[in-house]
Prior knowledge:
Oligomer: single chain
Bound molecules: 2'-monophosphoadenosine-5'-diphosphate
Radius of gyration: 18 Å
Structural class: alpha/beta
Distance between the termini: 37 Å
Number of strands: 12
Largest sheet: 6 strands, mixed
Strand order of the largest sheet: 2-1-3-5-6-4
Shape: globular
Helix content: 25-40%
Order of helices and strands: EHEHEHEHEEHEHHEHEEEHEHH
Amino acid sequence: MSDRYCVFGHPISHSLSPRIHAAFAEQTGEEMTYEAIEAPLEDFAGAWRDFAAAGGRGANVTVPFKEDAYRLSDVLSPRARLAGAVNTLVLDRNGEIFGDTTDGIGLVRDLQAQAAPLEKARILVLGAGGAVRGILEPLLATQPATLMIANRTPEKAHRLAKAFAGLGETTSGGFDEIVGTFDLVINGTSASLGGECPPLPEDVFADDALAYDMMYANEPTAFLRWSAEHDARTADGLGMLIEQAAESFFLWRDVRPETAALRKQLRPS
Ligand code: ATR
C-alpha cells in the first residue's frame, strides 16, 4: 500500500493541496496518496489519530487547526516553536509526531522567485495574528533594512515586534502610524476575507514596490486592487501555497519537488 498523506482543515473542499501534492508525487515518482479531510472543529486530535491508525504518515494542517496541531506534536521544530503553529505533521518510525511549519519559508521562497526586494529593503507587514507570527522569523532572516508591523489593534503589533526584536530591526504601530515608503508590503490580515482593504497611506509604496497578499483567491483581493491602483506590482498567495507544499513534501519524502511548472499551470489565465 502506498503511503498516505492528507490536509486537515474546516472547511477544506476548495483546497488546492491535493492537486499540488499529486503533481509533486507524479513528478518525483514517489508512491503516495494525498487527500483532503474535513476534521470536526472540536476534535482535531481524534481526526489525526484515526488517520494515523489507517496508515497516515503525515499531514498538512490549515485553518483553523494550526494551534491544535502545535499542541498535538510530541517534538516541535525551532521554527514551529517561534511561529506558535504547525502546518506539517510527520509521523516518525517510533510513532512520535513531529510538528513543523513551512508557511514562512514558503512565503520567502515565493518572494525570492518573484525577485521581491528583501535584503536591505523596507518591509511593511499588515496584521499581527497567527499568519503574521508564522512569517516574521524567515522574513527577518533575509536582512531587510527595517520591518514594520502595523495592525488594527496596535497593542498586538507591539507585542509581536517585541517578541521578534532580537532577530532584526522591527517597529510597530497602528495603520495611522505608518510613515514613509516601503519596498514590500505584505498583507497578513484576514481583511481580504470580508472584501476589505486595511486603511493605508496613499504614498505607502516606494518606486517598484511589491504588494503581496498572503491570501489566494480567484479574483484579486481588495488589497491587491488598491495596490495596483497605487502603481505597485502585485502578487497573491498562490506561490506561497505551492512553495510551502514543496517544503512539506521534502519533510515527508526527503525529495525536493520542482515548482516552476506548477506555478504556471495553476495560475488561471
Ligand atoms: P490569522 O490566523 O489569519 O492570522 P487571526 O490570528 O485571527 O487570524 O488574525 C487576524 C488578523 O487580521 C489580525 O491582525 C486582525 O486585526 P486585529 O488584531 O485588530 O483583530 C486582522 N484583521 C481582521 N479583519 C480586519 C479588517 N477588516 N481590517 C484590518 N485588519 C483586520
